[in-house]
Design goal:
244 residues, eight-stranded mixed beta sheet
C-alpha cells in the first residue's frame, strides 16, 4: 500500500529535487566566479538545506546527533557507512561549518546540475575506479587541501551503497591515502541509519515516513594511532551502531 501511495508523492518530491538543483546551478556559478570560495560554499550549504527540507513531503525527518564532539579549526576525515544518496545533503548541511568535500566517482563530475559543478570546483576528489593511479593522486591532492585549510573530507569506504542497511567491508586504500597526506587530521566516524529505506522499492517510488539518523562518534586523532589501529577502530565504531 505504501508503494502505491508513494508514486504521486515521489513525483512531487522528484520535481522539487530537480527544481532546486537547476535553480542553484547558475547561482553557484555566480558565487564561485564572482565572489569566490566562501560565497560558493555558503550557496552549496543553502542548496542542501532546501534539498533536506524537500524530503518533508515524503514524511522524512532527520536526526543529527553528536556534532558537538567535532573539533573546530582542524582538518577532519569524516568516515561513514553509505546507504543511499540521501546520506549526502544532510551531511553537507549539518556539517557545513567544517567545509565538507567528497571522495566521489568521476562520473558524477558531469551532467548533474549543481552537483557536478560543486564536485568539480569545491575541492572534492573525482576518482576513476578503473585507474588506481589517478584515484590515489586525486585523493592525495584532496587530503593535502583539507590539511592545509582545516577543512573536512567525507569518504564512504564501503565503496557502494548498502541496499539493506547491512554494512559492507571497508576498503583500505582511500583511507590510507587520507591518513598519510592529512597528518594533522582527525578521523570522525559517523553511523547512518534508515537512509536505505528511502530506496527500499528501488530508485522510484521512494519510501515514506522514514527517520534518517546520523550519529557522530568521538573523533580519533591520526597522530595518536597507527593506520591499522585507527582503521579497525573506526570501522568497528561505525558498524556496531548500525541498526538491523
Amino acid at each position: 500500500m505504501q508503494k502505491i501511495i508513494s508514486y504521486p508523492i515521489s513525483i512531487l518530491y522528484t520535481f522539487l529535487f530537480l527544481f532546486w538543483l537547476c535553480v542553484f546551478h547558475p547561482i553557484q556559478w555566480l558565487c564561485f566566479n564572482i565572489f569566490g570560495y566562501n560565497a560558493h560554499k555558503k550557496c552549496v550549504a543553502i542548496m542542501n538545506l532546501f534539498l533536506v527540507r524537500s524530503t518533508l513531503v515524503l514524511g522524512t525527518t532527520h536526526s543529527f546527533k553528536g556534532i558537538e564532539k567535532l573539533p573546530k579549526n582542524v582538518p577532519l576525515i569524516i568516515v561513514a557507512n553509505h546507504q543511499s544518496l540521501y546520506d549526502i545533503p544532510p551531511v553537507i548541511w549539518f556539517l557545513r561549518g567544517w567545509h565538507p568535500k567528497f571522495i566521489s566517482k568521476k562520473e558524477l563530475g558531469k551532467g548533474i546540475p549543481s552537483v557536478s559543478y560543486n564536485l568539480r570546483n569545491g575541492g572534492s576528489a573525482l576518482i576513476d575506479r578503473k585507474d588506481g593511479k589517478q584515484s590515489l593522486a586525486e585523493i592525495k591532492k584532496c587530503a593535502e587541501f583539507i590539511n592545509q585549510n582545516n577543512y573536512s573530507v567525507v569518504i564512504f569506504p564501503e565503496g557502494t551503497r548498502s541496499k539493506t542497511g547491512a554494512p559492507k567491508p571497508f576498503s583500505v586504500n582511500g583511507l590510507k591515502m587520507l591518513y598519510k597526506f592529512a597528518p594533522d587530521a582527525y578521523f570522525a566516524p559517523i553511523t547512518i541509519n534508515n537512509s536505505w529505506k528511502m530506496t527500499r522499492f528501488g530508485k522510484f517510488p521512494l519510501g515514506l515516513g522514514n527517520k534518517l539518523e546520523f550519529q557522530v562518534h568521538e573523533p580519533l586523532k591520526i597522530s595518536e594511532y597507527s593506520f591499522d589501529a585507527i582503521f579497525e577502530k573506526t570501522e568497528a565504531i561505525i558498524t556496531q551502531h548500525i541498526k538491523k
